[in-house]
Amino acid sequence: MTIDPQTWHPDPSKPAFVAPEGAVDAHCHVFGPGDVFPYAPERKYTPTDAPKEMLFALRKHLGFSRNVIVQASCHGRDNAALLDALRADPDNSRGIAVVDPAISDEALSDMDRLGVRGIRFNFVKRLVDPGPKDAYLRMAERVAKLGWHVVVYFEAPELEELTPFLKSLPVTVVVDHMGRPDVAAGVESEGFQRFVRLMEDETFWVKVGCPERLTVTGAPYNDVAPFARLLVERFPDRVLWGTDWPHPNMKSHLPDDGLLVDRIPVIAPTAELQRKLLVDNPVRLYWS
User: Is the pTM of this model over 0.85?
Assistant: First the structure.
């Protein structure tokens, strides 16, 4: 399989926005390096290596203190690269794993000691072949005993069918990328309002980053801001933000992570909302 073009910006700008002390990038990834942590045979893309050293350097450059590293689909269920990153900076890193349903309780406990705090269920078929929902439910029941949560990734047209399953999970559920709304349809569209109604259930949290994935008009992503701002202002205690570095599968452009940080005060316009989004909420979910 050929290596995809590089998806991370080689020289991101220094953001003008100064994040509050203790700020968390709550959604990012590590890729490889492939000669140390091989990519999964079943992967649907092969990224350019983006190892932990690059992630930690970017974190410092952006003025953030901590990372939540999410297992990427290119590594499948082999979490070795993720766990290696957690070992390298245990105080400032937490993780979300993707696991085989046959994983042992001992292996889950080992991950917990290293800083894993949840598992991810990916329903985006262009990226993975989703597993059966009953297997996902059994995994959620198992990780509930560790106090973990579940992160889910889906696209907006799938939400209506997924809602009963998501509501059946016995854990906190964190939704990636605002449920990937159709930005062109607007915040008042039925699709996005369906997601807002889901968020009225206090079981659900949402990540409000990734405008570069959702935009129709392009940078600086003004068309995406109303969606994120609505969620931040209506559900201030259950929102998270992340860079999504190194931006897997981005084909339209190389996102400038400094620009992404500078969008934060647009979607969280007060110091209180910024602190909740970047510090209080992720610390409560991942470090408490």
Answer: yes
In terms of residue numbers, what domain contains 33?
24-286
Q: Residue 13 domain-assigned?
A: no
Length of the chain (residues): 288
**Residue pLDDT, tens place only, 199-211:** 999 999 999 999 9
CA distance from start to end of the chain: 41
Q: Determine, yes or no, domain membership for 2.
A: no
Residue 5 forms part of a structural domain = no
State CA 78 to chain mean position distance: 18
Classify the phi-psi angles of 49: left when phi > 0, otherwise alpha if psi is within -120 to 50, otherwise beta.
beta
CATH of the domain at 184: 3.20.20.140
Give CA–CA dist 181/171, Å, rounded.
24
Active-site positions read 244
Instruction: Count Cα neighbours of 49 within 13 Å in the Cβ-side half-sphere.
Output: 12
Contact 237, 224 (CB under 8 A): no
DSSP codes, 169-205: -SS-EEEGGGG---GGG-TTSHHHHHHHHHHTSTTEE
Instruction: Give the tokens for residue 175.
Output: 């939704």
Pairing assessment for the beta strands 24-28 and 173-175 based on DSSP bridges: unpaired
Structural domain count, the chain: 1
- Domain presence at residue 199: yes
